[in-house]
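Example 5.3 — H/ACA ribonucleoprotein complex subunit 2
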Amino acid sequence: MGRELESEALAEPEAGPERTYREQLVNLNPIAQPLAPRKLTRKLYKCIKKAAKHKQIRRGVKEVQKFINKGEKGIVVLAGDTLPIEVYCHIPIMCEDRSLPYAYIPSKTDLGTAAGSKRPTCVIMIKPNEEYEEAYGECLEEVTALPVPL
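Solution (predicted structure tokens):
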């Protein structure tokens, strides 16, 4: 019985939310391009938190897809560790067709947490708003500057 508790204690830190950016990169999908660097990932999380506070985010594949089709503008943030990739692999194509900026971040758990949810989420759209205009503008500029995959 003592060994079971010991192995659980060893496995716990790995499952904790405090995994570093590098540790999260291990679980990335092959389609996770353009991937936001660590600094931009942090900025996106902060922007998502501000947007969630003002209810200016769209969360989940169905909702984001619906509003992209309606022509809504914003930054689309996708989680790079979502499996199976078929769930959301059409979203980047939709973004490119409508000239919407998008970027991948390493963790769906962190993405859900930033949006104020207890559940992981694989895609979020941040809508522009004057309440967090500076943070949004900064993120928009950096996401647009990321190299688009061929």
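Remark. The mean pLDDT is 87.
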